[in-house]
Write a structure and sequence with these properties.
single chain; 339 residues; alpha+beta; BirA Bifunctional Protein, domain 2; 2 domains; two-stranded antiparallel sheet; 13 helices; rod-shaped; binds phenylalanine
């Protein structure tokens, strides 16, 4: 009997070792450990054995039973793949680890932060303001009355349930807000998102970013404005960038300018982005209009200042050689991962 059990054990372990799929293994489990299995039969019939045989056979049969159970469960563990995550012998600690992907800054944010750096070093404070703005701060306080044609060039999104409120068309909405709050002298920049009712194309978006600058003090001149703009461009592009001023009309400055920057995509030689002129229109600027100073509670005879506003998208396009403004909000990782 003892011989028979040992043989049974060897045969069972051999067959179990050879099984490659779970089904095979389950069949063997039934064959050896099932209710009709040989080993179960032996254990069940122990009582019929001779008295001195009983303990010996019983002990061995039980040992063999647990050995087979162990072999079955070990193999089950492997075949069901559990060992791959939990079994220590599957963990190859020499494999390179899995890197967690970390995000990074959006190109607009990078440019914005560099600008903040440049301006805070020149003593400007950084102020953010509301994107949903009253028509007063967005237009009227800036010398753009309701009937003024400039409203048409800055058509935007009016709020249905909030008459008199608009999605701001420019960060100039912050000028009078800041003057009311901080008075003069004042040096501040206002970065932020702005909105226009535009048909989109490679150069136009309904939602984009501006950075506005405002400096109020005594005897501020256009020379101060140009010096600050030059310092800013040098901070961003790390070299002197030629600029030119053209007269430009904005109701909240007098005189007003459009500031063009040498096209850095073609180094001024002319390309499709600069429409072959070698210059890119990037900044609106001028000396703060007396009516705006007055709206901010200042005496225009005593105080003067300059203001400028520029599109951060366009600046980022120049810096990185991006030719389609729509990419910024596309959420396309192929684009975003390049920065
Ligand atoms: N707000 C103007 C625009 O939307 C830019 C500007 C700002 C012009 C300040 C002059 C002074 O383009």
């Amino acid at each position: 009997m003892l011989e028979k059990i040992k043989k049974l054990k060897n045969q069972a372990l051999k067959e179990i070792k050879k099984s490659k799929v779970l089904k095979e293994l389950q069949a063997l489990e039934t064959k050896y450990l099932g209710r009709k299995g040989e080993l179960t039969g032996i254990l069940r019939n122990l009582k019929d054995l001779a008295k001195e045989q009983k303990p010996l056979v019983g002990k061995l049969a039980n040992e063999v039973k647990s050995e087979i159970e162990q072999a079955v469960s070990d193999l089950k563990f492997e075949l069901t793949g559990q060992g791959k995550t939990e079994g220590e012998h599957f963990l190859d600690i020499t494999l390179p680890g899995q890197k967690a992907e970390t995000g990074h800054l959006h190109p607009i944010t990078i440019v914005k932060q560099q600008l903040m750096d440049v301006f805070t070093k020149m003593g400007f404070m950084v102020i953010e303001g509301p994107e949903l703005e009253s028509e007063y701060y967005n237009f009227e306080a800036l010398n753009i009355p309701a009937t003024h044609p400039a409203r048409d060039t800055m058509d935007t999104f009016y709020i249905k349930d909030k008459p008199g409120w608009v999605m701001r068309t420019h960060t100039s909405n912050q000028q009078v807000r800041a003057l009311e709050k901080y008075g003069a002298p004042l040096r501040a920049v206002f970065p932020g998102r702005v909105f226009r009712y535009e048909a989109t194309d490679a150069a136009h978006e309904t939602t984009f970013y501006h950075l506005e600058g405002l400096m109020i003090d005594k005897n501020i001149s256009i020379a101060n404005l140009i010096a600050v703009l030059r310092a800013m461009l040098k901070g961003i592009f790390k070299r002197d960038v030629p600029v030119r001023l053209r007269p430009g009309y904005f109701p909240f400055v007098e005189p007003g300018f459009e500031v063009d920057v040498t096209c850095l995509l073609c180094q001024g030689r002319g390309c499709p982005v600069c429409k072959h002129s070698g210059w890119v229109e990037m900044i609106g600027a001028g000396l703060v209009h007396p009516k705006v100073l007055a709206a901010g509670g200042l005496d225009p005879k005593e105080w003067s200042g300059f203001a400028f506003g520029m599109g951060l998208n366009r600046l980022a396009m120049m810096k990185y050689g991006i030719t389609d403004i729509r990419l910024f909000l596309s959420g396309d990782l192929r684009f975003l991962k390049q920065f």
